[in-house]
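pinging the channel bc i need a second pair of eyes. not urgent but kinda urgent?? the chain im working w is below, pasted from the shared doc
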Amino acid sequence: MKKNSNKFIRNLATCFGLGDMPFMPGTFGTLGGVPIYIFLSYIRKFFANHMLYNSFYFMFLMTFFAVAVCVSDISEREIFKKEDPQAVVIDEVLGYLTTLFLINPVGVKSNLIAMLIAFIIFRILDITKIGPINKVQDMENGIGVVMDDFLAGVIGNFIMVCIWTAFFW
């Protein structure tokens, strides 16, 4: 039973193999957020207004955050047996989805533009790890793996909201 649960955790951690890419696993792992965001964009139409949808998205992010911390912690301790393994990319997915929080594009073209801008912003912040982003990754266990990408997503979201408000709203 343990072997099957570790396989499931590994699949979640690597976003079903995207983190196993031989080069740029973080960039490929971030792409794992695209189908999730497309799904979240699709279900937006079932909410009465943006406030309800944004509340749902927030709760989704917080749940995803908790799952990412648990998955990253187990991956570090039991699967990869090293700190912050590159193959673990569930944190990149969370950061990318966090960057897109509060952006409510209408239509396919707007969604594609939002996804591309968010991808670029998040990857720049994740790679450069400016300011506090670099400091939080020193936290222990799964929280350290996830917090730098989550913080990059929060900062990226601020930038994204500014861009979206100025140019696309």
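so The CA atoms of residues 105 and 111 lie 5 Å apart. and The chain is about 70% helix and 0% strand. — does that match what u expected or am i reading it wrong
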